[in-house]
Amino acid sequence: MRIFTRCCLVGFFAFSLTACSLPRGAALVQEVVREQKAAEPSFQVVEVTRADLPQLAQWPQTGDHTHYSWPSGTRGSNSSTIRAGDTIDLIIWDSDTNSLLTGGGSKSTEMRGLTVSPSGTIFVPYLEEVVVSGLNASDARRLIQERLAQISASAQVQLMLRAGQQNSVDIVTGVPSPGNYPLASKNVSILSLLSLAGGIDKSLPNPIVRLIRSDKTYNIRAERLFSDQSLNIVMRGGDKLIVREDSRYFTALGATGTEKIVNFDKERISAMEALSMLGGLSDSRANLKAVLVLREYAAGKTGTGPATPDLPYVVFAFDLTNADGLFAARSFDIQPGDTVLATESAVNAARALFGLIGSAFGLANSVNN
Questions:
Q1: Which one of 3.10.560.10, 3.40.1400.10, 3.90.180.10, 3.30.70.890 gives the CATH number of domain 168-245?
Q2: Strands (E), 12-142
Q3: Predicted confidence band at 86 (pLDDT cuts at 50, 70, 90)?
Q4: Taking the model in full, what pTM does it have?
């Protein structure tokens, strides 16, 4: 009777286990790719090897992808060049009693707020339009004084320059003191300018420095800019700087060390580096033969050629039990918005099954006793 009762209980538990799925923290690879075998699959499965990497590199980029590039910069003169929009203050001194340049017994006359016109000139009485654009302050002062000497040999000129929009840089955001910063010379570097603005806001995670110059936009990660002196370029009038956080991320699910949203902390992250950032794979749960990267391509980015995926939804599969799969994972770039999924080993599900069966035997023993 005891043997019969034990067998009945075991049979009941075995039937119950086959009738419902075991609780698991991750999917089995068969469950993820099962639809690929359908007549009209809704997603594409790509088993990634080193031989596939050149072709996959041609596929479109996805997510909020930041294009990293940076201009080269050469040093200029130590004085600022006058440009349209700058403001010039002139003080003309003349000791001649009957000078045309001064009047009322004064030895000087002031002309303040002379704005350099779009054509690069300022108006000076008795001299008409004087072209000053492209000159530094010293050369412009000397030019005006030489021309005034034709009117009064004793005339002396004092010139002060205030930078306009084309001779200054706007720092828009990402620093404690954003604003418009005049360029005192042609050798003001980007790091010097950021320092004047109080440095990069410490609350920004993984900051990116964006430079808008004319009709081009450049991006560089802040830590790279700080570490390489050759990237410390000279600023130009009209430049705009925006410092912002790197908003790119990927998600982690399954039998990894964690399940969360992970921010990019560098320009490029490989599949292997992504797993490392997650704390690796769970030794007791993960299926090393099926680490998956799930990616969605935008409409119009699919096709039938080698440079595009066949379907908008793609599952990239890596076998980390052999050298080829390991090296492929090291060279495969994670894209913003990807999901890194470590599938669960079927062995782990079997262990859970045997554990429950063992519990069933224990329950049967307690009933018989």
A1: 3.10.560.10
A2: 44-47, 87-93, 108-115, 121-124, 128-131
A3: confident
A4: 0.60
